[in-house]
Structure formats: C-alpha cells, structure tokens
Design brief:
Aspartate Aminotransferase, domain 2, 4-stranded antiparallel sheet, 13 helices, 2 domains, 431 residues, Aspartate Aminotransferase, domain 1, alpha/beta, binds pyridoxal-5'-phosphate, 7-stranded mixed sheet
C-alpha cells in the first residue's frame, strides 16, 4: 500500500515539481478539476492588468498595431500548435469550441461532398460516440439538419467497424469527457481514411493533457478548449486547426471580416484569407487572449523538463495512484473506477461511479468532498451511462500527496455517511 510518506517522497523526486509555483493555488484546496477549469496562473492578473491600463487605457486603439493585438489569434495559436503536433500558422485561436466545430464540420462536409460527386452511394452520415460531449453532438445534429444527413451515435468499440462508404465524417473527442477513455487517434484516422471518411477531433481534454501529434496521425480537422488544461480562464477562447491540405479548399460558413484576405480594405465582397486565417470570424477577444497566452505559457514552461512527454508520464503516475488508492481505501463503499485502467487508453482524468440505492448519491458525494476542499465534479448519467464523479489531474500543479489526501477525504466522506447530509443534496445550476 502506498503511504502518505511515499507520496511526499514522490513529490520530492518529481522533476516537474517547480512548475506548480506558476499558479495561484488557494490554501487548503486540493484542486482536481483542471479538466473543467484550469487554475489561475500567477502571471495572468498582471498581464491582463497591463493590457487594460497600458495597452487599452493609455495607448488606446494604437495597440491593435503597437501591442500586436491583431496578431494574437495566430501568436497564441502558434504556441498551442507546439502542444498538439501542428506547425506554425496552421492553428488559430477564436470563438468557442462549439462555434469552431460548426465551422470545421461544414468545411469537412463540403470536402466529402466534392470527393463523392458522381459516385454512389452518397455519404450522408456523421458518426460519433454516444457519450461524446453534448455540445459536439448538438452541433453535429444541427449540421445534419442543414444537410439532410444523419448523426449516428455508437459505443466506442463499435466505431471502427461502422466506417464504410455511406459515412461522410467521423467526429470524436479524443479523450472522453465522462470516462477519460482515450481513442487511438492515429489508428482510427487511418481506418477512417481507408474508408474515405474525414475525421474531426475535439481536443478539449487532450491539449496540454496528453501528447497529441495531429500531423503524425494525419488528422483532417481539430478543435479544442482554452480553459481546461491550457489554463486560459473561464470562457477562454478555443482553437481550430485544419490540415494544410484542406485549409484553402472551402469557405468556412462564418465568413466574418477577420477571416477575409484583407479585412482593412473594407471591400464589399468576401475573399477568404489563405490558410487557417479564414477560420477567424470577428474581432479577437483581446483580454481573454492575453489571459489564454499566460495559461498556454504555463504548459510550454514544461518544455525544458521534457514537455508533454514528461507531463504525460506524471499524469499517468497520478491517475494510476488515484485509481489504486480508491481500490485500496474505498473498498466496500460502492465506489468504483470506470476510467480505463490501462494507461494508454486513459487521458488525464479518473472517473468513479457509486453503486447505491440513493439516486443522487454521486452528486452528493462530490458536494461533500468540495466542502472539505477537494474539488472534483459530477456529470449526470442517463439511460446509457451512469452518474459519475470526475477527477482531473493536471500534472503541472497536482502533487502526489494531493492525490493521497483527496482519497483519504473521500474515504472519510464514505465511511461516515457524511454525503447523506441534506446540504449536499441540493443541486446547483452548474455541477
Ligand atoms: C469535449 C468538449 N467539447 C466542447 C466543450 C465546450 O465547448 P464550448 O467551449 O463551446 O463551451 C467541452 C466542455 O467541457 C468539452 O468537454
């Protein structure tokens, strides 16, 4: 059994330990929700303050040029590109993940449509995973309504064999938001391409969490979040990447002026910018981009220590420790690990279910933990999926001793029946 002392020794030996100092971590909190909202980097407040007082307050509109505001979507995009195996000028920051998904699904549909002209049968199906994040499914559903296509939802294991000549697109989240299960990006992309299917990857739970190599995987399109493992702050803008082979092929549907080849010519007709820049739409959110850049820099700060490979090694160690300690210390409590035990199939989170007779037990257990300063979250299930308790492990700032202490709190919550208290059983708007 791993003891608290063992965990302290692991922290003492951790080559990434110094990276924790980049963050404002509230005293007395064990934060295991960086897969939902990353922690505030220490640099962010001063940087945003500088943008407000000096760049906006003093230099006013000149800052679009002098402070480089206009280049922020590309500048921050180039930094994120380094984390996901994209090259310079292939990825931009803009809008939300949902909006970017709409853009790329639309462009991908046109590419498939062009390729299948004259051939039969027509490809009219978008395949996705039944437990994909709802916004992905809603956006795909709306695309299907526009196109007269169908969205087909499958269990993860059934996806590969469904890829045939009537499927147009495969849209998947690389690391499942509920279970933390990670798809084989390169394998599934190759299988899809062999069947003539284009692939859109959502990297919301991957960017800054697991190594991703979009080029090596020969992916077609990718989108992702700025506010999770990239620590960009609540509502941080998202990113979009399109393989350079496709980037110039079609207009994306939200043809705003920032995606125009020459926005400041103010011409009435739309002329898309070359490459990924056409995936921009409106004016960049400068304050949010400044905050996101600080967040992305916290991940890039790991580069001298081995970068994403080193972060991944620590993430695996943290998630493995958590799962093992749950088995050991919470045995008999009804809690069980539902994330894959095999590291290669797991992202940087571990999810639990609770087998009990009370319907809202998972929610209440998470609330009881939060009251003790251990922050995870709850995701409701449905007819096909259990309610889950979700714990994210951001290797930049999570220590081994945090894992140990979090499990001890969970053990106490369970053995004392604390979670049954009425105060933990009232649903808030955000779970
Ligand atoms: C897989 C996935 N995609 C997308 C989103 C959110 O998209 P948006 O930034 O548009 O709210 C989330 C949020 O948790 C997510 O988990």
């Amino acid at each position: 059994m791993t003891t608290r002392q063992d965990c302290l020794l692991l922290d003492a030996d951790d080559p990434l330990a110094a990276l924790r100092a980049q963050f404002e971590l509230p005293e007395g909190t064990i934060y295991l929700d960086g897969n939902s909202l990353g922690v505030l980097p220490r640099a962010t407040a001063a940087r945003v303050q500088q943008v407000i007082t000096a760049e906006w307050g003093r230099d006013l509109i000149k800052s679009w040029n002098t402070a480089g505001w206009i280049d922020l979507p590309q500048r921050v995009g180039n930094k994120i590109a380094r984390l996901v195996g994209a090259r310079d000028n292939e990825l931009v920051v803009a809008d939300s993940t949902s909006v970017n998904l709409f853009k790329v699904l639309s462009a991908a549909a046109k590419i498939v449509g062009q390729a299948s002209v004259g051939s039969a049968p027509q490809r009219r199906v978008i395949v996705s995973e039944r437990t994909n994040f709802p916004t992905d499914l809603y956006i795909a559903e709306s695309q299907c309504r526009e196109l007269g296509w169908e969205l087909e939802l499958l269990d993860a294991d059934a996806i590969g064999q469904r890829l045939n000549e009537d499927v147009a697109l495969l849209m998947l989240t690389h690391v499942n938001y509920r279970t933390g299960r990670m798809h084989d990006m390169a394998g599934l992309t190759a299988q899809a391409h062999a069947a003539g299917v284009r692939v859109v990857w959502d990297l919301a739970h991957s960017a800054g969490a697991v190594p991703v190599d979009l080029h090596a995987a020969q992916a077609d399109f990718a989108v992702g979040c700025g506010y999770k493992y990239l620590n960009g702050g609540p509502g941080a803008p998202a990113f979009v990447w399109v393989h350079p082979e496709h980037a110039d092929s079609f207009w994306q549907p939200l043809a705003g002026w920032m995606g125009h080849a020459a926005p400041f010519e103010f011409t009435p007709g739309y002329r898309p910018a070359p490459g990924i820049a056409r995936y921009l739409c409106g004016t960049p959110a400068v304050l949010s981009l400044a905050a996101l850049e600080c967040g992305v820099d916290t991940v890039l700060a790991a580069e001298p220590f081995g970068g994403m490979v080193a972060l991944r090694a620590k993430s695996i160690a943290l998630t493995e420790l958590f799962a093992d300690l749950i088995d050991e210390r919470c045995a008999g409590s009804g809690l069980s690990v539902v994330s894959p035990r095999e590291a290669a199939q797991r992202g940087s989170q571990v999810c639990l279910t609770h087998a009990g007779s009370e319907p809202d037990s998972a929610y209440a257990i998470v609330q009881a933990l939060i009251a003790r300063g251990v922050i995870g979250d709850f995701r409701a299930g449905d007819a096909n999926a259990d309610d889950i308790l979700r714990f994210g492990f951001t290797p930049l700032y999570t220590r081994f001793v945090d894992v140990c202490d979090a499990v001890e709190h969970l053990r106490q919550v369970m053995t004392g029946g604390e979670w049954r208290e009425a105060r933990f059983n009232q649903r808030a708007a955000v779970t």
